[in-house]
Amino acid sequence: MLRAIDVIGEPNTPIELNSLEVDQSGALQQREPQYPLTFNFSWRDSNFEGTVDQVDDRLTLELSLKLAELPFTAEDATQRGNWSAIVSDTDAPAGGVLKIMHDSTAVLSKKIDLPELNGFTADGFITNMAMMVLSLAPYLDLLAEHSGAHAPSADA
C-alpha cells in the first residue's frame, strides 16, 4: 500500500504537498500532485474556503467567503433588497467577485495566479494568502456596516 508524505521544507524549498510516495518495498518516489487542494480557515469571525488548482502549469489560489444566507423576498423583502443593493452597488475587489448565488447565498471571492511552480515556496504561499485576505477586509467592514450585521472584531 502506498502512503503519501507531506513535505514542507525550508523557506527556499518548494511546497510539495502529498508529492512523495513510499511503495511496498520502502522506495521513495515522486508522484503527481492531486489538484485541486482545498483548505479552510477563520479570520475576523469569517470562515474562508480556499482552493489551489493547477491550470496549464500555473497554480491559482481562490478564496471564497459565504457572507450570508439571504432571506426570500416573502420572508424579509427589506433585508433581501438591502443585500441586493449592496451587491449591485459595490465594486468587487480586483480579481474578485461579489454576488448572490442561485441558492440565495451572498458570496465574496477572489482568485489570483501564484508564482511559477519552481518559484513557489511555503512563505510565498502564506504571503500571497495573507495579502488576499487583507485586501478583502474593507469589503467585510462595508458589508457588515450596510447589512446590519455586527462588524467582525479586528483582533480575531
What does this structure look like?
By secondary structure, the chain is of the alpha+beta class. It contains 2 helices and 8 strands; from the N terminus they run E-E-E-E-E-E-H-E-E-H. It has a 5-stranded antiparallel sheet with strand order 4-5-6-8-7. A hairpin with a 2-residue loop joins strand 4 (37-43) and strand 5 (46-55). The longest helix is centred in the C-terminal third of the chain and has 26 residues, at 122-147.
Quick recap:
With 156 residues, the protein is α+β, with helices and mostly antiparallel strands. The chain has helices spanning 73-89, 122-147, and strands at 3-7, 16-22, 28-30, 37-43, 46-55, 58-69, 96-100, 105-113.
The side-by-side strand order for the widest beta sheet comes to 4-5-6-8-7
Q: Topology as H/E string? A: EEEEEEHEEH
Q: State the end-to-end distance.
A: 42 Å
Helix content: 25-40%
Number of domains: 2
Cα-based radius of gyration, to the nearest Å: 19 Å
CATH topology of the largest domain: Yope Regulator, Chain: A
**Count, helices:** 2
User: What's the story with the biggest beta sheet?
Assistant: 5 strands, antiparallel
Overall shape: elongated
**Low-confidence parts, pLDDT < 50 over ≥5 residues?**
1-11, 150-156
